[in-house]
Design brief:
mainly alpha; 16 helices; about 0% strand; globular
Length: about 475
């Protein structure tokens, strides 16, 4: 066990420690989101707006595999962090071994099933006659790399849990740089001229390179993960249940993002059928695809900040340093609220120029309607602060059921019924207003519970002082 990392998590000044862990996580997540954004940019140049919409059709499968990686990574990271705080090396090793076998089994199964049922899946996900070919070309190549992609997500979380966030950052940087360099070479006619298939191949190679790096570092003697491939078959089924229960909120939150894409794509198709004057549904699906990419890129620094918070909460809660837990969640929430509010203001000013980056067909409706939709979606950014904090706080402490309810609330309990209600009354525009309504409602509820948890921590701090 790495004593230096243990001392850092348990004794370093909180603000300094948070930034030390968060900055690499922020950089890694921004870079990860950047190459999705650049994929979209190059596809728009090389194949047009319709092809951008095809990326949205193919994305739910990637979201599901990403969700598996997040579930296992965050669940095993929480188990590992608390065992690290207690100094329990056997539990640390079992957590990592179990996570590796779980990830391999689940991600490979999803990939194979998606290959078998590719055509029906694309139609289920809202593909239209004009974009299904692009979606097929993209997804059948990306599926090849879903296993290393999911494994890299899991090991990025585990390396952060052991206090080595720079490894995760470099891993994602490698994947992003490879993807960005290969995109134009594979897509454009002056290179290999593969179009959408080239974008998919660049993505597949980038994700594989990312996994190779992070796994090689996890195997290093400097790592506290203690991977033993000869003993990899020795998994802990009791720990399997704990990892799933803790990571399930992250799975739901991420996978529901994929489900929402499917629902929104089909709602768009339905609304255009009801109102033919709206034009080609592929235009609105492309708008939604760009909004999703811009959301991931602009909000990722906030999520990276929270990723820096998670191992601090997990370790110090395991070590019963409640005052440090109290301090880090308070400081993180203040920074997160300020950041999300700043992003909201930027979107209000820059929505049109942002959409113009992806328009290469002279489609002014795409820019006009896209900018309006993005501004509506951005209205709720500040309100999601406490939902993000609370969900990750509960996961870090192992409160699986509470984290699950928080994660489920926005993207299922609130969003789905609101989407059908608001589109019934306001048409396609109701889709964009649903984002704001869901963020407002779940953000308000999460803030109430956040204040309650802070009060409980204050009680624990006073109790510790009395017994000291």
């Amino acid at each position: 066990m790495n004593k230096q990392n243990s001392e850092m998590l348990g004794s370093m000044q909180i603000r300094k420690l948070l930034l030390k862990l968060a900055i690499p996580a922020i950089a890694a997540m921004v870079i990860n989101a950047l190459y999705n954004l650049i994929d979209t940019f190059f596809v728009g140049i090389g194949a047009g707006t319709t092809a951008i919409g095809a990326l949205s059709i193919a994305y739910p499968i990637q979201m599901i595999v990403l969700a598996i990686g997040m579930m296992i990574g965050i669940g095993s990271g929480s188990v590992f962090s608390r065992a690290f705080g207690r100094g329990d090396e056997k539990a640390m090793k079992r957590a990592v071994n179990t996570a590796l076998v779980m990830n391999l089994t689940l991600s490979l199964s999803i990939s194979v099933l998606a290959f078998i049922f590719l055509e029906p899946l694309l139609r289920l996900f809202g593909a239209t006659a004009s974009n299904i070919g692009y979606a097929r070309d993209y997804l059948q190549i990306v599926l090849i790399a879903l296993v290393p992609f999911s494994l890299s997500i899991t090991f990025n979380n585990l390396t952060r849990a052991e206090g080595r966030p720079k490894i995760a950052m470099v891993s994602l940087m490698i994947g992003a740089i490879v993807n960005i360099v290969l995109d134009p070479i594979f897509i454009f006619d002056w290179g290999l001229g593969m179009g959408v298939s080239g974008a998919a191949l660049a993505t597949a190679i980038g994700k594989t390179a990312s996994f190779v790096y992070v796994f090689s570092r996890a195997m290093s003697p400097k790592s506290s993960l203690m991977i033993d491939l000869k003993q990899i078959y020795k998994i802990d089924f009791g720990m399997f249940k704990e990892i799933v229960s803790i990571g399930l909120p992250s799975f739901v939150r991420t996978a529901m993002g994929g489900v929402l894409i499917v629902i929104v794509n089909n709602l768009i198709n339905f609304q255009v059928r009801q109102n033919p004057e709206l034009g080609d549904p592929a235009t609105y699906i492309a708008i939604y695809a760009v909004i999703n990419r811009l959301l991931r890129f602009s909000l990722m620094p906030g999520f990276g900040l929270v990723q820096g918070m998670v191992p601090i909460v997990g370790f110090n809660y395991g070590a019963k340093f409640h005052h440090r837990v109290y301090e880090v969640i308070g400081y993180t929430s203040r920074l997160l609220f300020m950041y999300f509010t700043a992003v909201f203001l930027i979107v209000m000013v820059m929505a049109e120029p942002l959409f113009m980056l992806f328009e290469h067909d002279g489609d002014q409706a795409f820019v006009r309607e896209g900018a309006r939709a993005f501004r509506i979606v951005a209205l709720g950014f500040s309100f999601i602060t406490y939902q993000v904090i609370l969900s990750n706080f509960y996961q870090a402490m192992g409160y699986a059921k509470r984290a699950f309810i928080i994660a489920l609330s926005r993207r299922f309990i609130v969003y789905l019924p609101m989407a059908f209600i608001l589109t019934y009354f306001f048409g396609i525009e109701g889709i964009w207003w649903t984002f704001f309504a869901a963020d407002l409602i779940t953000g308000g509820i999460s803030y109430i519970f956040y204040r309650s948890e802070r009060s409980k921590l204050r009680v624990e701090i006073k109790r510790n002082l009395k017994t000291a």
